[in-house]
Amino acid sequence: MTVESFLGRRIADYDPPVRGDRITGERYYAQRWADAEWQHVWTRTWHIGGMAADLEEAGDFLTHAIGRESIVMLCQEDGSVKAFYNACKHRGYRLAWTEVGGAPLLTCGYHGWKYAPDGTLAHVQDPDDFPGGSPCGKVKLEEIPCTVWGGFVWFSMDRDVAPLSAWLGAAGVQLEQWQMGAMTRVMALKSDVPCNWKIIRDNFNESYHLPTLHPQIAGSIDDALDGTIFEMNPEGHNCMVMRGLKPSGRYPTADILEMPLAQALEYWELDPKDFEGRASQARDAILAQKRKLGAAKGYAHYAGMGDSEIIDYHHYTLFPNITLTMWPDGFQLLRSEPHPTDPERCIFDHWFMAHEIPDSDVVFGPMGPTPFEQVERETIIFGTKTLGDVADQDMSVAIGQQQGLHSRGYTGGMLAGQEKRVQMFHERLNDLCGIHD
Length: 437
Ligand code: FES
Ligand SMILES: [Fe+2]
Prior knowledge:
This protein is an alpha+beta fold and about 425 residues long. It contains nine helices and 21 strands. The protein has two domains: about 230 residues, Alpha-Beta Complex (Naphthalene 1,2-dioxygenase Alpha Subunit, Chain A, domain 1); about 110 residues, Rieske Iron-sulfur Protein, CATH 2.102.10. The strands form five sheets. The protein has an eight-stranded mixed sheet with strand order 13-14-15-16-17-18-12-21. The chain has a five-stranded antiparallel sheet with strand order 5-2-3-4-9, with no helix packed on it. Strands 1-11-10 form a three-stranded antiparallel sheet, with no helix packed on it. Strand 2 and strand 3 form a beta hairpin. The protein is globular and about 85 Å long. Bound molecules: FE2/S2 (inorganic) cluster and fe (ii) ion.
């Protein structure tokens, strides 16, 4: 039996046992599950609040809503970032109403209280009308843990949360290779989707659905079971690696000239005709060309990356709800968050962050060629506009699964071995939420 994967990591180190808990249907629609998740998961973990690049001057802010909460993250005089609950200390009005904004003082729209970027109350109307005198300088917004990593501002509602680096564990160290902080967010779509957030998690925690649901990727990503690496980390995060620019091992006789792979060969100065009848060897040839020509073509970031990282797809899921699919030149964020009131809905984000490609004003992302410019989040009414063709396919089954999981005919699921990450995810949730039936 092989003890190392093609990444050079010991397989046994990333393959913890599972118990086989039943994956009940109730968890996808019951309020008691949503309440337990709020108490034991959402208020205890780290969240991505937005892009650090949107914070340039003291007083610039980001907001992020999760469940019924809203968090405001404010840029400080020294460039660091602090996060606060987005609620005025006077009578609770929400302070910041846009996802990105900024002013020297954050002003409440109800009675005009003003807060400095460090959360300290700086101005009130009629200050002498308060018992004990003016509250300015004495009152402060409720601060919560906040840090910047990977180009994102992160926050946690748990004052005792582990530092982000410890929470990320090995996944954080591995992700450093892509130099996420040097990338620009070029696509940011958000939609309210009619399914529980965990259905989307389950989907991104397995690749068993790829041949059926996403047949279009088989020409350039090897989705065959024996070519895919599955890893699970003790922190609850996991990783799946599929070889890129390699046709699926499920279709060994495919014609290379019919594949998107042919374009990649030409870009890296190879002749697709030389690979007729041996398409599976194109990956290694392109990898060699990337090493040889990458710096001259402007792909300076390859120098700090491993061989697999500059050609394959590394698909990380950070527990509980953030998927980062790493491409050689960019990455997707695929996140599902709980709806404020309805366990049968969730908020889905699909972002793409990319390195600038020299001599090009576009980058290739999940929507095809995309202008290289920083974008803000665009909210889409579900079903009225695409979220990306692969994401649309995933969402279409997610809403169908939400229906089926209500059936008395669904008795708890039966997973394939390669769906172990789905099992692991639910067992961790069962333990955190204290629900084992
Ligand atoms: S609620 Fe904010 S100033 Fe009154
Ligand atoms: Fe999918």
